Fold these 2 entries.
Entry 1:
Amino acid sequence: MRLMESLATTETLAGIFSDESVLRAMLDFEIALARVQARLKIIPRAAARAIENAAQPDSFNPAVLAHAAQRAGTPAIPLVKALRESVQKEDPSAAGFVHWGATSQDVCDTALVLLLARAQAALESDLERLQLALRRVATKHRRTVMLGRTLLQPAPPVTFGLKAAGWCAAVRRGHARLGAAMNQALVLQLGGASGTLAALEKRGAEAGAALAKELKLGYPDAPWHSHRDRLAGVLCACGILAGTLGKMARDITLLMQPEIGEVSEAQEPGRGGSSSMPQKQNPAGCVVTTAAVAQVPALVASFLGGMVQEQERAAGAWQAEWSIVSRVVQATGLAVTAMAEIMENLLVDVARMRANIEATRGMVFAERIMVALSPKIGRVHAERILAEAIALGRAQNKNLEDVLAQMDEVNDHLDARTLRDMESPEQYLGAAQEFQDRLLSQGGKQAARGRKRRKD
Amino acid sequence: MRLMESLATTETLAGIFSDESVLRAMLDFEIALARVQARLKIIPRAAARAIENAAQPDSFNPAVLAHAAQRAGTPAIPLVKALRESVQKEDPSAAGFVHWGATSQDVCDTALVLLLARAQAALESDLERLQLALRRVATKHRRTVMLGRTLLQPAPPVTFGLKAAGWCAAVRRGHARLGAAMNQALVLQLGGASGTLAALEKRGAEAGAALAKELKLGYPDAPWHSHRDRLAGVLCACGILAGTLGKMARDITLLMQPEIGEVSEAQEPGRGGSSSMPQKQNPAGCVVTTAAVAQVPALVASFLGGMVQEQERAAGAWQAEWSIVSRVVQATGLAVTAMAEIMENLLVDVARMRANIEATRGMVFAERIMVALSPKIGRVHAERILAEAIALGRAQNKNLEDVLAQMDEVNDHLDARTLRDMESPEQYLGAAQEFQDRLLSQGGKQAARGRKRRKD
Amino acid sequence: MRLMESLATTETLAGIFSDESVLRAMLDFEIALARVQARLKIIPRAAARAIENAAQPDSFNPAVLAHAAQRAGTPAIPLVKALRESVQKEDPSAAGFVHWGATSQDVCDTALVLLLARAQAALESDLERLQLALRRVATKHRRTVMLGRTLLQPAPPVTFGLKAAGWCAAVRRGHARLGAAMNQALVLQLGGASGTLAALEKRGAEAGAALAKELKLGYPDAPWHSHRDRLAGVLCACGILAGTLGKMARDITLLMQPEIGEVSEAQEPGRGGSSSMPQKQNPAGCVVTTAAVAQVPALVASFLGGMVQEQERAAGAWQAEWSIVSRVVQATGLAVTAMAEIMENLLVDVARMRANIEATRGMVFAERIMVALSPKIGRVHAERILAEAIALGRAQNKNLEDVLAQMDEVNDHLDARTLRDMESPEQYLGAAQEFQDRLLSQGGKQAARGRKRRKD
Amino acid sequence: MRLMESLATTETLAGIFSDESVLRAMLDFEIALARVQARLKIIPRAAARAIENAAQPDSFNPAVLAHAAQRAGTPAIPLVKALRESVQKEDPSAAGFVHWGATSQDVCDTALVLLLARAQAALESDLERLQLALRRVATKHRRTVMLGRTLLQPAPPVTFGLKAAGWCAAVRRGHARLGAAMNQALVLQLGGASGTLAALEKRGAEAGAALAKELKLGYPDAPWHSHRDRLAGVLCACGILAGTLGKMARDITLLMQPEIGEVSEAQEPGRGGSSSMPQKQNPAGCVVTTAAVAQVPALVASFLGGMVQEQERAAGAWQAEWSIVSRVVQATGLAVTAMAEIMENLLVDVARMRANIEATRGMVFAERIMVALSPKIGRVHAERILAEAIALGRAQNKNLEDVLAQMDEVNDHLDARTLRDMESPEQYLGAAQEFQDRLLSQGGKQAARGRKRRKD
């Protein structure tokens, strides 16, 4: 993880997209290709062995390859060349069988897919931690009332449980979308020069199917060298998930404002401090999440724009993908990890939540009183009376119920006791708990399935 | 359809997002809400009737509403106000029941969803036309050979059938993705002020379910006012589909260059001409497609970025959505329509396709000869010989086979006849037809199901 | 202004990009072209008169033209055709001289530039209102102290004057950037079929210069049909300005949270209310600004991506520009207008600003005390003591000064009086006023120049 | 340069944004801050010396810092901490004066600006090479005729000199824009905790000015911690320049299609080959340019969107900048470098350019003949005749002149000789050379100034 990218990846993901890991994935493709072709008697068994022996990441200098990749327009050309030279030294008769029937895009695309499979595993594990934490928070705070806030202004109360359940369900949907998109995208690319596998004569599809199996990837109906929609699906799923995580980070950042003070990231050494202000308790995890999320949408757009790829291989749009894909996945992964840690340790100030409702002096229940008054005195009249009462309450720092209790037109229909009850948050939660239960129930089933599957 | 937007929508879609249609959708929500609430005895039956009577699009001035919407920050506030005033005139006791228990976002979001459902129908029909046309083209040209082109340079041959089948399968996947995303997104939004439906007391979820049914929408687990991932899914699906259509338009634009001349959009009056050049046969449909597609990715990014919505209702990001969503859908729809028309009338010059292969003088078969020579004389040696022969052929305008036939090192292993055969495009198609069949088979099943479903 | 776009434009700008106005601009180009060519004796004087007579917007049906534009791939072809037919009826010999030597892109690009010039005037006037209002706010609140807030957590105090001056200077820089970019971009496009004006033989540049003068546009070194950097400059300037306005809207939205309550948009009928919550005082103007701003960056990216235009005229990227450019300018303009209105009427609660500082119980002055203690007892020691004191203060709801005054290690160096003084906001403003003066001085000069220039 | 980023940076720029270089820039800030404060007697001279001694990049472990940066939400906090500890070991009394009066953003922003200054120098040098090469190409091919191509269809001829001059002027404008934006942006950030430099009491602006001078940066009117428009200007300038370079790469890629074959990148070992196709002469440099350019617009949009930064320091948007800025600059720089190399070695096939004009069999001169015929027989009539002649010529593979010469209606007005002359490209270049001269003249003056300035 480099300094310039310290808010754009995680150590795990930086490792997955590191030179060593990229080399490993490319060489895994070449090894598996040779192995499968030997098994199918397309190339000699000895050649496959020689290739496998030579294809060790340590034998290659990534800096030299990167330099050559920039000249060649793809890392595949210098890597294949270096591999061939290496095989040549050991077994000259085998060198010609390196990369047999394949083309640059085959090794680059398949290597990317192999890296994505590893990245998915990393993301999955944090996504599960995150959902578990959210489910726990939601359950714990099923009855914790807090202000609803719309356009950042107070609105009738919600529960913190409902809010957390909403986050949880959105993460669950995002997780499911990512899983589905990955399932579609984790397929072999093997097309040869033009996508017909002509160099393998009639055995192209057979070799492809065997190679996919060897690499534990799906085998698509045809090579996808110039149709990038499956990868686009993965990036879009990352983009949507990142959007959800960004929303959560924003919510928490706002709730952490000391003037609101309802929740807080756990503070610990090296986290949340400032280089100049000793008193600071910064939303460091949310900041990291927000910074990571901010980079994703535009990169998704880059990828979508780059889907316009010419004929059987694009002149530029394809070559831009590695950088874009790896950045989207890394930034999304960072947001997942940061948010999982936040949610596992979130501090909730239940008293402050209630206090903030009370601080509105009943004003957020104006809708409720309006609804109660309207049928009795007409909407227009009710609106006028409430507007007056609210203005008066604000001017005199009085509770809305107290102002209303003084107004005859109200008194005739709602007594002081009723008015006071109308300003009880617990009495004005509507379907909050029903919605929370619905939001979590589906996830529960999925989580159970998820756990089961893993045991297999 | 306005001049400024004539390359950004279709007449059908412009109609769906027109003032009249938007008003209609918003009023449909208010009517259905009242009707359902009357049925559930939440509001009086007479009030619902009065609301239904008043809620006629013709009674409202969209320009006035748009002006007021800009001041209010949402079109819902002025519309509800105007509807209430209108009901008030007819039945004062009913006016208070307009929009009962609902909030601005409920009517805006649900109206948008209703418009999306209509737009989907429009897109679906063109998507089916397009796939039918592509299937026909692919089948007809199953054996039509043409140059593969990678990085816009000649590569071993493909078939035009395979290319069209690749387009077709990508459109099919895009269609399926859009359908799935729409299925998820076409759900009611009804949450009231804070998303708890508190004003409906314990009957919120019941009313919601009934309203969803009334409007023929799905009923989600909870209101989705500040979780926009389902809509994001629709936009991403549009973005991916647009990318595929853009690729097709680029392919055809390139093949239509007279220096290549392999396919052509049908020319007809008002299409493909120039305001200054009488000889012009422009790829007008592809230009329209490309222009439409170019607008989509960034708008998708805007939406993804806008998913960071604060608490129970965002202060800005939500309000930006109408414009973004309607533009994405319209631009994508234009691309689908334009491409369907292109493919239904595409002119294919089979002879020119073959001539362009021959014009490479066998050079695109160099890979094949390399593959044949390598096992006999070693890869390094074969590479050197081919490089020499290619240079010589280029310098002397000779066919690769003729140059090679003069070289002893080749002669010893491949005779002139074999070399000539190696440069037959039909003999070097590998798995092209197998891949084509696989690409189309799945679509065939789907198309069949599609047709069946429609009959029901 | 349509409902779907009511948060994406202003009435003025919607008018500038309306069908009528677009037609007017295109016809202005054709009229001026004919007039200038007649003057230069390139076409007959009578032809120019006939063209001028026929080129009345009312004579054309924009809906029909838009429909035809979608088929032709550009509005120019149907418009020129319709104009020619119209002239033909009046003076057949003149019809051939319509659009003489020009091509579609000439009329489309120049019309767009003419519309931009009108839009610029609209934006300028609101930009000046906005800067005037900001300057007034800044001057009035030069000594008004308020919390600094970093990462949305309290930081040492700033003045509201400094904050407003920072906004003002950023708007001024944005204004200057937009002006400079417009100056570069408001140039004629006249290149003919391929950009050489070949149909005008040796008189192309002469005709171009005259036409530019006639249309009050600059005349560039050469036609810019496929180099779009000048327009890109305008869009980028809009993008940067929008970013600044978005920052201002976000700041105000946050300060308007009732828990903070330091500033407020003026509330008035139809603005800031809610369709369900009578107590609501929403940041409606900020919401509109934020919604408008949210649409701009991605559209700028679309334009930048679309600069990759092929050869002498692009097949798609150019055709996408009208929609993109008009949306960027309209959204930016809406943000300017909304923000000008907000700033002209902003309510500032000076007492609340001070109260919010006090509510931190001196914690935001921890840096100051640290700076004072460090040289005396060493940084490490000072840090430890402050950390303790802050924790204690928080736990016991005590002021930092009071806690510190009890600690011997502090007492030895800073007495209670000194500590109390250290928590006076006015005493800890550093260079705030100096910075404010510097920020405003430059604007003052510019504003003066601006006023002068206008008098000329 | 890593494999994943080998098409997203250059070795020079990767070096500038490497860990070592980033550390160097951050430490340079801390050293200069201490030195200047010592000079102004704000801190002891000995402290400054101790800080300078300790601030050696080798003493810090970037991987450890990056890890801590991710926890802290900024690299500044761990770096300052590590530096303080390092100073503490050497001179405990000095440790407290590390980073005196500054905050995290001061060191991060100023370090970024220092890196940008270095990057600018790298870009400048390649931009000058590129313009020199373009000027040479343009001058050499001032009379080289080639097809104009609009919508990728043949249009009347242009000169290759004009095309190259157009590229050159656009690069020059881009260069100027970047220079101006850099001039604005290369300014110190020093604001302390809230941007008032309160910890420096009344000496903040004085210290700031001195520090700016020490670091050879401009000193702005005030700290710009939450107004990011100057940086946005740099990114936009990169975005516009990248667009121009992308257009050039697309043009060359298209002209390199063998079916067109008018220009070619120089081929050399390791460049332009394929891993499977021996005959390939790929546009490798254009591919690299296109891939680099493709990444820029969206990142610019990310930055613009991120300008919405809260109050005195943003909670996320600011922290996302390093990654975005460094990527934009690196990708743009790669495009400049790649394009400079292409243009310095571009192969031009003048004969093929002429042959491609001739291959249109005079059709591209149809406009010219129309212009000549119209005044004689009327536009409508002329249009009809030309349409007929073009259709006939296409059907019979005849030259347009030959078909027309057979038509009585033409014969009466234009004889065979005149018609033949009308199809001479050299006779139909209009203002091509005048435009070329205008395009290059300004650059010449600038280039001369540029050279002079450098000598000083």
Entry 2:
Amino acid sequence: MSLGIAVIGTGKMGADHVRRIHRTTSGAHVAAVADPDEARAKEAAAGIDCAVHTDPAAALSAPGVDAVLVASPGPAHEATLLAAFDRGLPVLCEKPLTPDAAGAARIVAAEQRLGRRLVQVGFMRRYDSEYVRLKALLDGGSLGRPLMLHCRHRNASSPSFFTTEMLVNDSVVHEVDATRWLLGQEITAVTVLRPAPSSYAPPALADPQLVLFETDGGAVVDVEIFVNCGFGYQVRCEAVCERGSAEIGTGQEHALTVQSAVDGRGRRGGEIPPDYVVRFADAYDRQVQAWVDATHEGRVEGPGAWDGYAAAAVSEAGVRAQRTGERVPVLLRERPALYA
Amino acid sequence: MSLGIAVIGTGKMGADHVRRIHRTTSGAHVAAVADPDEARAKEAAAGIDCAVHTDPAAALSAPGVDAVLVASPGPAHEATLLAAFDRGLPVLCEKPLTPDAAGAARIVAAEQRLGRRLVQVGFMRRYDSEYVRLKALLDGGSLGRPLMLHCRHRNASSPSFFTTEMLVNDSVVHEVDATRWLLGQEITAVTVLRPAPSSYAPPALADPQLVLFETDGGAVVDVEIFVNCGFGYQVRCEAVCERGSAEIGTGQEHALTVQSAVDGRGRRGGEIPPDYVVRFADAYDRQVQAWVDATHEGRVEGPGAWDGYAAAAVSEAGVRAQRTGERVPVLLRERPALYA
Amino acid sequence: MSLGIAVIGTGKMGADHVRRIHRTTSGAHVAAVADPDEARAKEAAAGIDCAVHTDPAAALSAPGVDAVLVASPGPAHEATLLAAFDRGLPVLCEKPLTPDAAGAARIVAAEQRLGRRLVQVGFMRRYDSEYVRLKALLDGGSLGRPLMLHCRHRNASSPSFFTTEMLVNDSVVHEVDATRWLLGQEITAVTVLRPAPSSYAPPALADPQLVLFETDGGAVVDVEIFVNCGFGYQVRCEAVCERGSAEIGTGQEHALTVQSAVDGRGRRGGEIPPDYVVRFADAYDRQVQAWVDATHEGRVEGPGAWDGYAAAAVSEAGVRAQRTGERVPVLLRERPALYA
Amino acid sequence: MSLGIAVIGTGKMGADHVRRIHRTTSGAHVAAVADPDEARAKEAAAGIDCAVHTDPAAALSAPGVDAVLVASPGPAHEATLLAAFDRGLPVLCEKPLTPDAAGAARIVAAEQRLGRRLVQVGFMRRYDSEYVRLKALLDGGSLGRPLMLHCRHRNASSPSFFTTEMLVNDSVVHEVDATRWLLGQEITAVTVLRPAPSSYAPPALADPQLVLFETDGGAVVDVEIFVNCGFGYQVRCEAVCERGSAEIGTGQEHALTVQSAVDGRGRRGGEIPPDYVVRFADAYDRQVQAWVDATHEGRVEGPGAWDGYAAAAVSEAGVRAQRTGERVPVLLRERPALYA
């Protein structure tokens, strides 16, 4: 029994999901696509036997739709999620769950009313093999309790629409989720230090920054966010524990030794992936496959609405910390029993 | 349209392929399984809606069978391959294509009579991401012509049935194919040097060995084969080219820094995978997916019958080189136009 | 002409300097030693033709003394330095120059009165080959302006007398000097974050900590100080610049691949040095040789009294930041022209 | 008591030794220099209070000469060594001891007549910290018996006078000594495989080559010698043992991450030293210091005349193996008791 999926939003990310479900995912097929831009929707669906709509609601009610993958812009998520809830459809929703914590809290409330969870949020790092092994290592306990995480999040360059706030709520939000997941702790405060910006960053962008988290388990996390580093996409995390340290993101497949055309010196080293599509290609594949497998079995797993809410709340505190230069506490609502 | 696959042989490797096709591969399903041990066949097929046979021929003619995956013992391959040819079924055949070069030559002859290729041989390293990138790098030409390959092929320990000959024809055969594929050259001579065996190897096993290839393109290849190295499964390859060197198999995902319980010293490093199942998990998945995708499109790609024949011929020379201590030339038949 | 050196203080560090000057340094010899513990002084001087005193002043006036190496406890430095100044003797003074910023300011004032510099402070990292190359790389400008430094300073375990304050003023003080030297900037503020301490640290010790510097050039520096990490002595520094990043302290001489006796897994990696004596052995040798060479030529180079003062001032701010949890500004005096 | 050293030969290597003894070595000074080119001798001795001669014999008998460092061309070594023996002077002789095995055998015979050893041969790798630790590791026994060594010896480019024979008797001779020393075994046979030469090597040079040693302890050693690799000077050695593998030469001090100006890709890696002067700078310093220290104590240690002879004998077999393409046995004389 193949799972029929409606893909809502066929921009870059949505079109990639359409391709993935059609070509890579086992046990699922694209049953419908929706995009306000009909031409774009048709292009994404080319060669696939599926319904094509401009209205998300129409796609949700297309024949053979068993589940929904939401890849539309963040402000459109809430309406689609609620519509999917009305139909009892499981949803894999790209991050952010909603643009702000208040919206995310409404999704949490909606699931509470339903009495069950339907949403998985697309924090795909939880499916990356390096992160998975780091999590297993920390949970295994051989290194003792984690004390600090040192994170680096670097992009070669930022798109033209990128704002200083997005350093936190679009980029560092991945470290927010990774921190919460790896440590099993909530973030209680955020501080941001801003060095003099790189002269290669766009004039209005305060890039890079050092974002600091404190957690309710007593851990301290520092995140370098640098979205115009020039050399590629590099995501690193070192977990410093009581009895040892574990790092991901510093390894490489190839070691290439060549003479540099720049300075004539020989160097031996590995390549940095150009972007997140390359770096997390397998994570995206595994995320969707895991969601499909869980859905077949009637389960919901992975990061849920509560995680989407917490990430949004920390992001909001982070943006205030950016603006004020102060340490900003994170005030989360009570965690409902549904997400215990 | 999902491709119906008959899996012939449900031992460890075959059962794993059944699971893979059922759970991981997109666009395919298990249509039939066959194993002389009916209980084992049924166990592999548990929970899957497919035919179960003890006779390979019966499985090939089961309803809905569009293609065949052969994972039975090597001596049984030839009969199954010829039966599949009679039905015009595409085949993915685990290595070795046949146990000896003469048998492989008969498969080549059979495809020539058919006038088309139907077989892909399961040299899965060609689908490993590290090998794929090394191949692309060499083909790209930026490093100049490859001059030497330095290969390491290490297993933690060898199974009880392993023989000295198998160091070459079961293990190094992967480097035979990798050499031919990476360089696009044929191997013309084999020499084997045998150090005093490790005291941790079984008494009858001359382990490790250094196997040397010369190619018709003037390259020299050395392969350390060591099947009782103790520490894990490690496959490395350094391609030394005119303008630089590229290595695979030395990287790692994690860098773990811990104090050793043995000598009290701290070390920082990465983990060695325990076995080929872990090391080449993705390569197996990609191999089967690529074969399914190509079959859907009516193509045959990847290593074919000629590659299976050449690997067998080099292996036979290698075993003679082991026994005699001499440099043994490899004498290949003329390569048929079908495999140009 | 060999330089006659009086070594003041023959504890662990001083005795090591006596051995170094006697056996390793070219162009110098030990002319006198002094230690309140006469037996210890004699033991350090065993086999060396030199004067042995319990009084530092007596050692300074011993025949053939051309220069002084101060390795006594910090509180004793000021008197010895002023006595050496009276005699116009060049001094290499182990860090700290003095225990507090006020004392260091008095040394600065004394040199100003002399109208020339006589003191080099023993910040030996400036002579470590890794740091030297990092400094050259940053100064070379190919990476653009440095934006952040990420530092790790880890000891296997702390001695019994170690206090929480010493995490900053005894350990992180090395990063204070390294930051000032690498960037050529003054540190303007310190913040300290304290995770829940490791359960392997002594009960009274708040270990580890994350110490943050801001500089007058707009750089941000984070320093993990962890003096009970268990696995060895590890000093790392990553300089994140506008056009690339450079790391030191992650390399290794050996890559050892062995099966772990703990978990049975194979790992490939390099050894962490056990302590600073091993890690910085060459740096100590080079520091003393460079000081001897400069003294022969009538020059004073390396970190001077001003650097000792600035390090003390930042350390004092750091200790306040530890205690208060606040961001503490560093208020330096005007830098005298002598140290321009 | 400072050791007075006569440096014979003030070409590049000899002049460097003069500088080293004058500036770096503790407990020694340059007492005399000799070079047929008087201007060159004077230039090397500039600023040093020492005798300057054109005749080696005159330098040996200059006042205050206690020991000799021979850095003249190989053909001149024998006469100088015998003259030093006549005076009972300890000698540190740059490699090769003599240009051929017959000459080296005469040096061995001369020491036997003296009844004591006076010569140390300049195989400086034995003083390199990486090699020293590898040797200690192998001797420590934790890895079991060494089975194979995989060696790489690469130069950026070869000087104009370099010949194919010199790949073996000038370059690989270092691996000959390293193999004998690391394993404590004699080399019994040499085989050479010659790939099609790099198009970047001079036309007459068969570069690179793969040189294979067999030892009397049953080990197998492969050495890639590539003197026009383009990217730098790289000396690597992996010792594959029964219970693990240890590699040197793959580490690095810096990890630099930058975007390549060639292909626009980011890479993280370490620098390859440009030449042996940089790579083995410390080894040369330590070699001379160890020789001076041993001489002070009346000891001779390090590689001696027998090692020089054995290296010459293996080199001669290696050159024959190059020419014939055959496996060439090494026939050593009986090892005299003096070198037991």
